[in-house]
Amino acid sequence: MTDLPTRDAILEFVKSSDTPVGKREIAKAFGVRGDQRRDLRALLSDMADDGVLDLGPGRKVHEGGGLPRVAVLRVTHVEDGAIFAVPDNWDHADPPPRVRVREQRGGGKRARQAALGEGDRLLARIEETGRGYSGHVMKRIGRAAEDMLGILRRDASGWYLQPTDKKIRKTVPVSDAGGANDGELVLARTEGRKASVTERLGDPFAPKSISLIAIHAKGIPNVFSEEVLEQAERAAEMPLGEGREDLRHLDIITIDPADARDHDDALWVEAKEEGGWHAIVAIADVSYYVRPGTALDRQARKRGNSVYFPDRVVPMLPEALSAGACSIVEHHDRAVMACHLDVAPDGSLSGWRFTRAVIRCAANIAYEAAADYPGIEAMWACWRALFEARQRREPLELELPERRIELDEQGRVAGIGLRERLDAHRMVEDYMIAANVAAAKALEAKRSPVVYRAHETPSAEKIDALREYLKTLDIPFAKGQVVRPAMFAKVLDNIDDPLLREQVSLEVLRSQTQAYYGTDNLGHFGLSLASYAHFTSPIRRYSDTLVHRALVRAYRLGEGGLTAGEIDELSMISEHISQTERRAMEAERDTIDRYVAAYLSEREGEVVTARVTGVTRHGLFATVDGVGGDGLLPMRALGQDYYEFDETSRTITGERSGESFTLGQRLELRLAEANPVTGGLRFERLEGDAPAPAPRHGRKKPAQGRTGKGAARKGKVANSGRKKAGRKRGKS
What is the pTM of this model? Predict the structure, then answer.
């Protein structure tokens, strides 16, 4: 009797078959007959349960790559109340799929208190839906051992870990210091209530260590394997390829920051005799060098994007490509994807085409030099038309200051300023937007798959919350109308006070949904565009590489096009790179906060002017004027009064003194602490600023803190120095 085939043999047969395979074909190929057919069916069913095979329609069998019907999941994050997880064990080359966790309803107060959080593990029944995977909780499992970044400390009781994450306020006992010294930055494996040091990372306060904290804390891959480096070097030496459109006679230029580490986009524009302009947006041809399925490609997909810190870049591609063959350097021939745009006199796009081309950049110029650079008058004229067309669309325009960290030669913070916003920035941005729109529409014309940059309309709940906030400022925001970006612009245009306008702009930003990558065209609300894809930065964004490959495939532009396998996985890949983008944003933001805290640590004890950026039942969050950095003024430090928090108006008011705190308010505060390791700041009020409690004679004792639904909107906190009273009236 013939033995049943092994799992590996079945999988190899399914993968290598040129025709659709069913159970009958598998049985015939391996000589399975009689009663063994039943055993074969059971084996195939087990393989499907494990996610190794998919039993598709028409009894056909396909290679798996999805999830088994029951799987152990690990929660990665909670977003707007929704819980998302990934498989706890995933040994495929592709990124793990994201699962929306569905918790059972009910269960009372205890169940709600035990809500799933980041890092929790669970056994779930997996269901594939039209928009991805859903996981229905069957059983909660203990948290897995996980890595934690922190500062190793020692006291009389022994070693302990001080976490670098400011959200974790408790220290963790350390059972094994691994030879590290007191005060070292370490990576530790936590199991249960103790940790053991697994890696020593050195002095956390040394120059250039600050970004290293974020890299390790967020799990950002920052080391390329030898195989990937070798592939990148070989790719960089490839000839530019035949059949490219030769654009080397054009004076194409790049316009970037003066300290740009790479140049992946270039511009050229000429006026047409009949009116309008012919513009070329030339983008590094990454898809030519990075081919699907290679180790180089798998690493780029895993990283998802480059991550930019004040002192370093963690690139998506090795330097041989990112700063070498793919960087558009002046006076060197470079392979590009050229987007030819026909721009009408009114700034609308009347046509476009895409080619693989070769260019020779005439100059790399800085933004600051673009206004006076000779020979680009047509570029400026065309941009003014594009800008007018943009204004007619009425997109969401939020002018929020962007901090810039200035480092000295040793890597220490020399100063913190604001990035200047020039017309050259706007010009380059509008040309890139035009090329991105053209890429999306060109792919749609070929009915090709598209990785869209989606930005959905804000939810009704967020709009209602913004409306309630604006009502406290006596700013009207009509109800019941279709939500459009122009509505927010109208609100901001009617605010004369620049400080208030900045604060309202921040609240408008908080009301928006987060942009992401996906295969469904949901439009881009913020830019007021119906179709939008990212095409212009393939050196640093994997999404753009996918769009390039789709164009190569759709328009038959040569090698390196989107493969059938990639098309099947586009939704999963889009989800993955959306997550890596969020990870990069968090790492960059946390690093800026740590640099700001390092800069302010020398001013501990000084009085600073700070603007209130958040009002919660725990106290006030404030940002130091001209510097940034978010710090907490705890409720208990406000003064000896009963303070009431109102969520609708986002205010805290003293019941006796009538003293009120609200968003945007400026306060003189003492900087009590600035922690470069966590990036956290802590403020104190100046002596004499905090009002003394009013006499209580004849006054009714304040009502005790509410519970249930009402407590979510209002809470009272007693700051009279009596701990019991404080606890009675709410959290502090």
Answer: 0.77
